[in-house]
UniProtKB/TrEMBL annotation:
Binding partners and assembly: Component of the Sec protein translocase complex. Heterotrimer consisting of SecY, SecE and SecG subunits. The heterotrimers can form oligomers, although 1 heterotrimer is thought to be able to translocate proteins. Interacts with the ribosome. Interacts with SecDF, and other proteins may be involved. Interacts with SecA.
Recorded topology in the membrane: Multi-pass membrane protein
Name this protein carries in UniProt: Protein translocase subunit SecY
InterPro entries (alphabetical): SecY (IPR026593), SecY/SEC61-alpha (IPR002208), SecY_CS (IPR030659), SecY_dom_sf (IPR023201)
Gene that encodes the chain: secY
Superkingdom of this protein's organism: Bacteria
Cellular location(s): Cell membrane; Membrane
Protein family according to the UniProt entry: Belongs to the SecY/SEC61-alpha family.
This protein's UniProt keywords: Cell membrane, Membrane, Protein transport, Translocation, Transmembrane, Transmembrane helix, Transport
Length: 454
């Protein structure tokens, strides 16, 4: 493996792409140390800690927001919003493309239509950034409900709030530009790499929170910090990562037969191929949608229980939907929403009718099924069945951090690396990065990173 990594830097073009990607990711991480002007960062950290101690769900909500957006909004840096506004705008236009005919026509125009949609996405990103950043700055001016402004004295006017708003918006637009430069001149998907870098940047903190108690109390067998417990955590982590990779790469291959074409004395076609359908067709999106949607019941019931303090039913619902508690009601709701969004997202991204028409146009067919409507019905039935399996996989991955945190008594920050959105994103991005590096190596007659030289 060390020899293969050395080969990467022997190819000039690949070396330039890798170095440029690393430099841009370093610039992205440095932005998290540049604080937003006019904000009392010390008071902000203290207020967030107090609120987290009083309302167990707030810290988890902030952690989820930071995880999805590759941001650090809790510290209010210039990259505080992260890349989430751009992702939100992209999802909005992707969903609108299925129900809004003009966008649907643009999606079918190829490269020109894609560029136009990207232009609209950038404009929408600016609007979302302005709204979100102003809301956050205005919230800080109110002290996050503590009654004391978290903006420095003398800088609480509208002018300074607008300066901070534009600064955060510019930070997100700059991150969007970094992602596009990685796409054009680097290696891998730029936006995905930014999110992955934000997730992996939390690993040292999580690892230290696991190791520090062992250094203080010792690693005697049978204790909470024993070496046996650390070994079990390490083995569970390796098993979960290998299992997630296997399921993420899992496919259902549909056999396809191409028709024979006779042109003069030449006979072409007639080959037997396969149509791969991914088991996890929806990717990580169902978990993101489900966890984001479950934030609303928490905020609603928490507000209602604070207004009607005498209601024990509202207090019970408030506790049931707290993200930190992850009790039975929360977990069941989580799994139901994951199943719903798996089928919803698959229905949007996978069109069996169009696929059947494309197979018919290319002179291919599925043995035993007539081209056209019968083929489309068969593909839809297959996708319904494998989506059920993919949804079960996503549901299990989503609740693994809760199980690890509960059964092994691990802090949730550490347990979040055993499953959930973060692990799926990292695995998907790394697999995509390896595939793109392998494409450069194969073109120059080198073996891939995961291939044997024998």
């Amino acid at each position: 493996m060390l020899g293969k990594l050395t080969v990467l830097f022997k190819i000039p073009e690949l070396r330039r792409k890798i170095l440029l990607t690393l430099i841009l990711l370093a610039v992205y991480r440095m932005g998290f140390w540049i604080a937003l002007p006019f904000i009392d960062q010390a008071q902000l950290s203290e207020t967030l800690q107090d609120l987290q101690n009083q309302q167990g769900g707030l810290g988890q909500v902030m952690q989820v927001i930071s995880l999805f957006s590759a941001s650090n909004i809790g510290q209010s840096t210039i990259f505080g919003l992260g890349i989430m506004p751009y992702i939100s705008a992209s999802i909005i236009f992707q969903l609108m493309g299925t129900v809004y005919p003009p966008l649907e026509r643009l999606q079918k125009e190829g490269e020109a239509g894609r560029k136009k949609i990207n232009e609209y996405t950038r404009y929408a990103t600016v609007v979302i950034c302005l709204a979100q950043s102003y809301f956050w700055i205005h919230t800080l001016a109110g002290g996050l409900g503590s009654g004391k402004s978290l903006i420095l004295d003398g800088y609480g006017g509208l002018y300074y709030q607008m300066v901070a708003t534009i600064t955060m918006t510019t930070g997100t637009i700059f991150l969007m530009w970094i992602g596009e430069q990685i796409d054009a001149y680097g290696i891998g998907n730029g936006i995905s790499l930014l999110i992955m870098a934000g997730i992996l940047a939390r690993m040292p903190q999580a690892g230290w929170s696991l190791i520090e108690p062992a250094l203080d109390k010792g690693i005697a067998l049978g204790t909470d910090t024993g070496i046996d417990r650390l070994l079990i955590l390490a083995l569970v982590f390796v098993f979960v990562v290998v299992w997630v990779i296997a399921i993420t790469q899992g496919q259902r291959r549909i056999p396809i037969q191409s028709a024979k074409h006779v042109r003069g004395r030449r006979v072409s076609g007639g080959q037997r191929q396969s149509l791969p359908l991914r088991v996890n067709q929806a990717g990580v999106m169902p978990i993101i949608f489900a966890s984001s949607l479950l934030m609303f019941p928490y905020f609603v019931f928490h507000w209602m229980s604070s207004v009607w303090t005498s209601s024990t039913f509202l207090s019970m619902l408030d506790g049931a939907f707290q993200p930190m508690s992850r009790g039975f009601v929360y977990t069941i709701s989580y799994v139901i929403l994951i199943y719903f969004f798996c089928y919803f997202w698959t229905a949007i991204t996978f069109n069996p009718k169009d696929m059947a028409e494309n197979l018919k146009d290319y002179g291919s067919f599925i043995p035993g099924y007539r081209p056209g409507a019968r083929t489309a019905a068969y593909l839809e039935a297959v996708m319904v069945r494998i989506t059920y399996v993919g949804a079960a996989f996503l549901s299990l991955v989503a609740i693994i951090p809760t199980l690890v945190s509960t059964w092994l008594g691990v802090d949730f920050l550490v347990a979040s690396f055993y499953g959930g959105t973060g692990l799926l994103i990292v695995v998907s991005v790394v697999l995509d990065l390896v595939n793109k590096i392998d494409s450069h190596l194969v073109m120059r007659n080198y073996s891939g990173l995961l291939e044997s030289d024998l």
